[in-house]
Amino acid sequence: MIVELRHVYKNYIQGKMETPVLKDINFGIEEGEYVAIMGPSGSGKSTLMNIVGCLDQATSGELFIDGRDVSKCTDNEMADVRLNKIGFIFQNFQLLPRETALENVALPLSYAGVPVKERRKRAAEALEKVGLGDRMKHTPLQLSGGQKQRVAIARAMINHPKILLADEPTGALDQASGRAVMEMFRALNDEGITILMITHDANIAAHADRIVEIWDGELRYPEGEEHTFTGSAAAKNKETGAEQDQPAGPEDAEETEAEHE
Ligand SMILES: Nc1ncnc2c1ncn2[C@@H]1O[C@H](COP(=O)(O)OP(=O)(O)OP(=O)(O)O)[C@@H](O)[C@H]1O
Ligand SMILES: [Mg+2]
After folding, report:
1. Which of 15, 18, 91, 223 lies 20 to 30 angstroms, CA to CA, from 120?
2. 229 within domain boundaries
3. What is the pLDDT of residues 201-223, one digit of tens each?
4. Residue nearest to atom 28 of ligand 1 (CA)
5. pLDDT per position as a tens digit, 72-117
């Protein structure tokens, strides 16, 4: 699995009040999968995505990204995972308003220490790829919503991440632009990119291979599709002695978490 969450909880603390937002999230995404998360407003979708994207840390639980236990990472190591493994797409595009499309797309490369000439070349290629070769010098104000989201996709993919995280990527778009974004996601997924997409829209979710629902901070799986833990996480569990109290006998073997396939 390229992403795995294990007993993840998130509580927001404001003063003396603690609000539980994510409750025992157990969830995995296979490499190359395209998963949609649906759920009502306030159910914890963005919170979940921000944790998977290493933008925020869980209150407790474990997160594995591409085999790495991110829950034990320092802030710097998390930034590294973010930069190299993950691309982000947001409903409101999150482009720098004063910078051109080209500069926006090139930005992650500057964090990665790529020389300026190479940055420009690669950003221009990425914009060509999303059909915006003729809009490179435009600022976000001079672009349509659909075009802005294509710039955001080019930026998200510029470091060749393995995982694309998208929070309501079509939420601010008309139907035609939304469809164009979905076609790009399909093409990226066909190239092997793993996609996790949040959406309210069942028609948009239908583009994914698998839909998972979240209600009030808890994931709901279709019957028989509950998450089973991978070998590495289950082995880790043994290491930490998390379930040593009840060693699994042969009769309850199917209830252990090691049997992942
Ligand atoms: N920084 C914060 N401090 C306190 N509570 C927060 C914070 N961020 C989110 N919450 C609470 O966590 C819950 C989940 O928020 P989240 O943004 O994850 O919901 P969502 O499912 O993405 O909703 P929407 O569909 O409206 O975007 C909400 O009840 C929200 O009020
Ligand atoms: Mg949200």
Report:
1. 91
2. no
3. 999 999 999 999 999 999 998 77
4. 42
5. 899 999 999 999 999 999 999 999 999 999 999 999 999 889 999 9
For residue 259, tell me if it sits in a domain. Answer: no
CATH number at residue 132: 3.40.50.300
User: Are 64 and 14 in contact, with CB atoms under 8 Å apart?
Assistant: no
Residue 260 has pLDDT above 80, yes or no: no
Domain assignment present for residue 242? The answer is no
The ligand minimizing its distance to the Cα of 25 is: 1
| 232, part of any domain | no
CB-based pocket (< 6 A), ligand 1: 12, 14, 19, 21, 39, 41-47
C-alpha 6/C-alpha 221 separation (Å) is 15
Alpha carbons 11 and 23: distance in angstroms, whole number: 9
Domain with 27, as residue range(s), is 3-220
Place of tokens 């474990």: 62
Token pair, residue 124, equals: 């221009």
pTM here?
0.87
